[in-house]
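Homework help board

Subject: predicted structure for assignment chain

Our instructor gave us this sequence and asked us to write out the predicted structure in token form, then describe one feature. I got the tokens but I'm not sure how to describe them. Can anyone check?
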Amino acid sequence: MSSPQSSPVRAEAVVDLAAIRHNVATLRTRAEGAQLMTVVKADGYGHGMVPVARAAREAGADWIGAAVLEEALGLRAAGDTGPIFCWLTTPGEPLADAIEAGIDLSAGAPWEIDELAAAVTDRPARVHLKIDTGMSRGGAVPEEWPALIRAAVREQAAGRIEVKGIWSHLASSDEPKSPANESQLATFTEAIEVAESFGIDAEFKHLANSGATLALPETHFNLVRPGVATYGLSPFGHALPSAELGLVPAMTLRARFAMVKRVPAGAGVSYGLTWTAPRPSTLGLVPLGYGDGLPRHASNGAPVQTAGGRHAVVGRICMDQCVVNLEDDEAAAGDEVVLFGPGTSGEPTADDWADAAGTINYEIVTRLGARIPRRYVDGTQSVPHPAAPSSHPAAPSSHPAAQPSSHPAGQSDSHSAGQSDSRDTPSVDG
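My token output:
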């Protein structure tokens, strides 16, 4: 049986920080001429917000992107003093804390400008104005854009806000030839021209997410915001795999069998007995389930890798466990099973699990719960949880070996752990 360092006691997600740095460097090259914002929302897409942010800074990320205030303020509390952008707030949130922390914030409606201005004390709020270019989520629609601009001009003249950016989000960058991309780009360009006609000369214009950073250079302007590509996952799925993009998946999810048993032909498996052994078979019990973030929709088909090769999950995935059909392979309790990883050693990938669940690779990694400890490695070496991200990019450094550990201080332990009912087609970051 393997040692605890080389194989987890129950299960673990191993995150390779060298892969994160490699991916950030690759994205910087693809976005040459523009600054790069590494998006670490949802606890770094399940990889760990603070460790990912530090690795991204080391690899040259100019900005860190966070969806909600708790994330942005958590980065500051962890010591990141570099540029941070946060874009999702609701009425009455503690904007003053974020303004005082020097966090750039988004406004897509006049009421948001009013709230930002009212929250100002010692320094003006740094604001990025959002135009809805066709995705119909946040941001001002073109008809309401002039009203947002007028509100911003008023408060900027009063010294309460400083307009630092104009931004929007693409709906179809995972389909580079979609006419929606051209339409949204045209609307975004027009919005910039309208803002300039009111005297707004924003320093940053940003539209591109992962798909656009990789495939639509005309959308780069002077700042790009890749999310899922940072973690080595392709926004295009199997249509353009990670390896073809020069990206390295950073997470490996593995566990150890809790039990292995032989069952006769006709034995049913798991709730509802939705799978029946067609012949005498060896079954392995994996101590992970939808309570840990495995998608229940991947029942009866999700792939895993063992010493004997690839096998499939059979029967329904339960809250805390699932069953693998090992057929006639020999195995024992404590043997390792890899659910997904980079795929370089024949193991399944997050894309394979996404296919089995009818969802996207983003969801597979992001939904992994707090019961699964994260262990950080740098290539082949285990590393301690990184200290707070630095404010300036630095050359990658070597790290001493460390024992497996749980979430770092300042990192959110909140992950979606419920059953997924989505059957989404691939979509862009966000």
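Reply (TA_rk): Your tokens look well-formed. For the description, you could write something like this. The first strand starts at residue 11 and ends at 16. That's the kind of observation they're looking for.
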